[in-house]
Hints:
The chain is an all-beta fold. 0% of the residues lie in helices and 58% in strands.
Amino acid sequence: MTTPSFALHVPAADLDPDPLDPSQVVSGSPEVTGKVLSESADGRHLRGLWQITPGVVTDVEADEMFVVLSGRATIEIEDGPTLEVGPGDCAVLREGDRTTWTVHETLRKAYAITLP
């Protein structure tokens, strides 16, 4: 079943806890919350909201495009560029990118992910 059309006031959207794997935390005590807003029938295409509090974490990325709604972060991509992102910025990450996120201010983003 596909998700019906809808609208959502993003700043007031309730997000669900999405605990990090402790091995991903480099420093600080970042907390992650999120909500999948729509998912394709095959589960490969996800759209949603994601938020992380300040700290430093590592990740291996999916094929993703996101827009930062609030907050600021520096995203270092292994063997790639360093991205400085803040409100209104759009970023694209490639599947398999190894990243280190330094979150300076609680960051909330809207994302679209394609899984393999």
